[in-house]
Specification:
4 copies of one chain form a homotetramer. Chain A has 338 residues and is an alpha/beta fold. Chain A has 11 helices and 14 strands. Chain A is 34% helix and 18% strand. Chains A, B, C, D: This is 3-deoxy-7-phosphoheptulonate synthase.
Chain lengths: 338, 338, 338, 338
């Protein structure tokens, strides 16, 4: 931690800061500049609440030197993680496709979709049983019944299955059925849910919050990891900006940023990122090329009849075409898609 | 709902749309322009899922005409609401001050703060028993013990008390103690929590999400209202933008916007909005002048020793000064501060 | 300047950095922490290009300690400036009203408006002769003819006049006519224009760019000041965010932030900030209460006939009412409105 | 254009709107819904200033149906454009590499860079002779002398050359030397400069403004096109968001969005988008895969000695490696890189 003093800070103020630091069992290194004095703090900073030092007279600002996340930090775990989920592996060397409907609407549409995405080459079936919806009057999901359909689809196709949990209650139910639990963008800082997902030990797909910084996202992952669960995959799904031509703004640079800061795998959700079917194929290719470890894509037997997210869902044919288009890119970068 | 066709949409495509609309028991009004054809849809739009019409051939885009929130919508409830909470009233004609520490750290600091803010003229004691923190390694709150201290503070001072609930579990506990429950920015779209708060019937302070639009915020309020709980007060606390000179960017215009769209009262949190103690007084005056119905402000016996949010907390003296400064503005706009 | 080394930086790398710093005639102070080493750089940092040090092996990041603007920086000029423009003063102790049409449409509408805003109590007539418009097919302004009408309005009413310059050419023309030149949001980083405005010596109203940080804004002011022109007034006019309920998002906290960082006066433009007539009065009161030094407001004899910005323009009656509403707030904060 | 009436709008108000529309030589189509009435306006909307209709009693809001840009609009020019610049072609079927230093610092570094990027396979040499810099105290460029060095580099290597013009003055000079003029992000809405670039007829690389919407960007291109210059290439270079892990946030989805809305080619600037050397290679691959028509990349003989943008500049070796990595991706998508 570094403390930057105001240009007019008195000698006395500097000494007082030094005293406080030393009283907390830390060391203070002073650099007196021509304009300002800087105080470097050495030692275990958790002994000191940096924020409040800002309030001491003569202090201009505080600069943090180290990140607050540890377990998911590449600095302390330099080797990239490969996470095993069901029959699949997610991480470097692999390119994992997850596909399925936004919401599980009924038994038949789910099974039909499962067979279609399996045939096209997906490894995971996605499907929402609990739906977080902006309006209370929109379709809210089939809940446990939906999870049972998912389980049936797994048995029928061999696909791994992933569902979102939106509360402690739905998490408790979901872990009985799924291979991987998704924590959605709106719950990225639902800390109770993160801790429970950590305790449950189930593999977690952690979506980035709508306006979360990468640091906040990694701290959210740290909540899960700190409860003893290292099976975390991150998912970039677009952030909120002023641009409205797409539903969100895909922050594709988040992939190399995560690579440099964390050992966790990261995949991309082109469906929510763009909200427009026509943009999903080019964005999927870009995701593979930038180094993402996989994709989660919305597919529906009849997008025009979908109860939610129709405009961003692919038909079976379109998903099939997408898979064909992605294969040569996966080969080029030596990624296993099976 | 309005459907805008593409410039090159065929006559056939337009007729197909018309058919779909009529098959759903609605009426279609066509306007054929020189460049594009527009289809107005008349009737109960919940019969139709507007999103998917975007997928029909020839359709360019869909424009919603009416908001999805009803109970909190001023169009259907033109009179502004005044919400009664404990001994206080929140809404037009009143200016309600809520003050207290970010986190309840122990018994004595809370009681000391309660007496100080009561003496200065506050009507509510705020204090966090459950703290949502970015890092899992930061102080997480005293939980139920904290709520008991709050209750004791109410009995000792006559202040009304407000605490945040961060999960179904903490909500269940909090309602036994508090006059008003706060749902924080990070949980604004925790729909399970909103519904439970609706069912509980307790007055709710609903903070705006960090990157929520005003429409999403009102839809979140609708979740509470739709469960039969009309006792909702909104709280603007700054949104996330690119500017880093303040912790968040206070969207002060949200106050007149809410006034024009909803009958619910709205207050401002200058502490989280700015994150800087020196800005709280000018922003508080502006909040009163713009027509907000109150403020929620962080006050601490010793900000430099606070376990969280020290830099944005006022000392007792500063809060006292703030109250003195605000009184003439309240009088000018004929607002009752008691 | 502070250099933060990577956790795994070698002793050698640290010594190399030290050498580079000393080779540039500066001093290096080392703080070796348990995790990282920090290097404080003392001396005239312009001798060193901080950015590139980031590229040296073992360096994690660079932290700037001092701002790059000097002349407009409060640290070096602690007394707030009061700027004289024509017969008016702008700065602490004053509250300056500027009003008039977005665009000067013709002679009569301008003169009519001038008399109306003068009577209501404004000190400045604003009016656009050169209009920056998003589409090339929108009305682009009367140019020099408009400036002549402005001059006539000044002579007829005694109002001071302000017009925007959008290029070196229009600046050259405008300075012959106006009391104050406005540099608009879109040109806040048109550095050639800033330098010319600096050389011209004319008082400048410098609007904040649509997505400019406060630091960039003060650096833009520094461009003007560095050419020898200290007569600069800042104008906050809303920034671009994801929220669309208002045209822009007024960053009202920018007023106290500017107060703490610069000695320059700052006014607010509620018309562009909100884009909605109904919000202008509450936002104007908030602007006065937060401590802004004045307002620039759009007024039009017939907003529904305006060639631009009609929806955000006040009628004469509305402006009159606004002035009446603002006076008690100005008195309360002891600000001179004449 | 569509006019949406308020739920409580009177029959009279609707008739008045109808009258105004017809008085302007247009047709009005009414759709009376259960909640609101909608008025479709048919005819040449330039006869009516939509904005002001918002002010008429009973009107809730106005919805635009058609874009204001025409010449650069794909709806009216469905075939994608391929732009010829010097010896190069930019557009579908090609992948054009532009590379060189941020600023031209001196004769030798420019020539050295030119030979290096030519050898690696670039088609354009980029180099800044006029530098827009946030601080007035930073290096501002060699101006015309720099352009002469660029010309010499072209003669020596056969590369096409591109330089930024930051003012009418620099544009006038630059067109004498360069194959293509760049209009930078800060000048995207410097409308005088756009018009002059349109008149000059020189091929223009138009960078997206830091917070410009795609619609504003296409309208800026329309300014150039409307002066008779169709030789426009767009360049996405990242937008400003709340995320600070990268210098800007690359909006990679802008590429497919532009493809669907305009016939103009679009390239990507990964150097400014990320600001970090390590992210340039993955982002370049993603740019190619998403369908961008080329890249503009910063390369410097000694990034650690660069006068600007050192941290985001590639060394010659890194650029060489980048080109090698991109070639198989270009082949895969059948793009010509020569």
């Amino acid at each position: 931690m570094i403390i930057i003093m105001k240009p007019n800070a008195s000698e006395e103020a500097v000494l007082k800061i030094k005293q406080i630091i030393e009283d907390n069992g830390l060391q203070a290194h002073l650099s007196k500049g021509t304009q300002v004095t800087i105080v470097g703090v050495v030692g275990d900073k958790s002994k000191l609440l940096s924020a409040n030092i800002e309030l001491i007279e003569g202090v201009d600002k505080i600069v943090s030197v180290t990140e607050s996340y540890k377990l998911v930090n590449k600095k302390f775990h330099p080797d990239d993680s490969v996470i095993s989920v069901g029959t699949a592996k997610i991480g470097p060397g692999h390119f994992t496709m997850m596909a399925g409907p936004c919401a599980i609407e009924n038994h038949d549409m789910l099974l039909e979709t499962a067979f279609a995405v399996k045939k096209a080459g997906a490894q995971f079936l996605r499907g929402g049983a609990y739906k977080p919806r902006t309006s209370p009057y929109a379709f809210q999901g089939l809940e446990e019944e939906g999870l049972k359909f998912m389980q049936e689809a797994r048995e029928a196709t061999g696909l791994n299955i992933i569902c979102e949990a939106t509360s402690l209650r739905s998490l408790e139910t979901a872990v009985k059925y799924v291979d991987m639990v998704q924590i959605g963008a709106r719950n990225m800082q639902n800390f109770e849910l993160l801790k429970e997902a950590g305790k449950a030990g189930v593999p977690v797909l952690l979506k980035r919050g709508l306006c979360a910084t990468i640091d906040e996202w990694l701290n959210a992952a740290e909540y899960i990891a700190s409860e003893g669960n290292p099976n975390i995959v991150l998912c970039e799904r677009g952030i909120r900006t002023y641009e409205t031509a797409t539903r969100n703004t895909l922050d594709i640079s988040a992939v190399p940023v995560i690579r440099s800061k964390s050992h966790l795998p990261v995949i991309i959700d082109p469906s929510h990122a763009t909200g427009v079917r026509a943009y999903i194929e080019p964005i999927s290719k870009a995701s593979l090329a930038v180094g993402a470890d996989g994709l989660i894509v919305e597919v529906h037997p009849c997008p025009a009849c979908a109860l939610s997210d129709g405009p961003q869902s692919l038909t079976f044919e379109q998903f099939d075409h997408l898979m064909d288009e992605l294969r040569p890119y996966a080969e080029l970068s030596r990624r296993n898609t099976k």
